[in-house]
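name: query_chain
kind: protein
chains: 1
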Amino acid sequence: MQATDHITLQPLKVVILGPECTGKTDLSNFLANHYNTSWVPEYARAFLNKLNRPYELSDLIKIAHGQIRLEEEWIQNANQLLVCDTNLMVIKVWSEEKFGHCPEEIINVMNSRHYDLQLLTNVDIPWENDPQREHPTRRDYFWKRYREETARTGVPTVEISGPREQRQQTAVQAIDKILQRKVSS
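structure:
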């Protein structure tokens, strides 16, 4: 290798997961600004805003493909880090909850995706009403589901809780740790 050769390193991918109304989007935006990088919004929100009927199982497959498409687009503009405001794990959990199962297509794509860190947001902040939020009384249940799901992945997971500033600080410390490992390796 010559001094003029460049190694293109993929940005580290951090995904923020958790039940409804636990500050995922707020934290994604903060982290993208903090690290001066891109963040992938939740595709489902825009998709469901345009849908003039209750969503169906087939819509979840479209949402999954849309989420991956956004991730692939935004990673092109990311620097050392890409922040993802959800991933297909959320679609899997919702599919199982609403329809009793998740299509194999979603599971296969979910299992093929790589993330370097999962940030799991806790339910210890107040609920805010939103027409797309379905289960204000079941956040503890979903918190446990996401803990189980994240544990199965083998990906390092950090639980995010407390007031906004504490959440931000915990997330930054976790990301700095994986960024430091990347630089060291």
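note: The chain has one domain: 13-184.
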